[in-house]
Amino acid sequence: MFQAAALTGSKPEQYADLIEQARALLAGEHDRTANAANLSALAFHALPDVNWLGFYFFDGRELVVGPFQGKPACVRIALGRGVCGTAAATGRTQCVEDVEAFPGHIPCDADSRSEVVVPMFQGNQLIGVFDIDSPLPARFDADDVAGLEALAQVFLESLR
Ligand code: SME
Predict the structure, then answer these.
(1) Structural domains in the chain?
(2) If you measure from the C-alpha of residue 108 to the centroid of ligand 1, how many angstroms do you get, rounded to a whole number?
(3) Mutational test site, ligand 1, from 53, 64, 105, max ligand atoms within 8 Å of CB
(4) Does the CB atom of residue 131 touch ligand 1 within 6 A?
(5) H helices of 27-141, where?
(6) What is the residue-level pLDDT of the chain in tens, covering all 160 positions?
């Protein structure tokens, strides 16, 4: 059985540990739902001050909610809408210090104050987004963005 170890050290060191744990957890499995579910559970319990963490997948038309941890969420998000749709449409990670100041932000959990959304592509093909919400304003910095992008990459690599 997989044992998640407590994260220690500097924030980059903690993400390095978490990324290693994620690789071990997903090793040998290529199922998208299974790996998104287990990665969500691992990261949600490892990262402090996070109230929602999970995946939206692109169905060829819009984003549809996938495995996640947190309160029930909006199911479908059009490309270009909200933080998730913006990440998907631009191909750029969105790090939002104050979700209420983000034009078109879609409030799923009223507790969310800041948010990171990492777009996921395989080549030019949009797979979906990895979305992390915090109840604290400006919870995420450049170390979080780098760590969360690396976690999304571990997920993408596990699908092959
Ligand atoms: N806030 C997101 C919607 C998804 S929830 O945060 C889970 C957005 O604006 O796209």
Answers:
(1) 11-158 (3.30.450.40)
(2) 6
(3) 105
(4) yes
(5) 32-46, 82-90
(6) 677 888 889 999 999 999 999 999 999 999 999 999 999 999 999 999 999 999 999 999 999 999 999 999 999 999 999 999 999 999 999 999 999 999 999 998 999 999 999 999 999 999 999 999 999 999 999 999 999 999 999 999 999 8
Residue 97 CA to residue 16 CA, distance in Å, equals: 23
The finding on whether 36 has its CB within 6 A of some atom of ligand 1 is no
Question: What is this structure's pTM?
Answer: 0.96
| Contact 112 CB / ligand 1 (< 6 Å) | yes
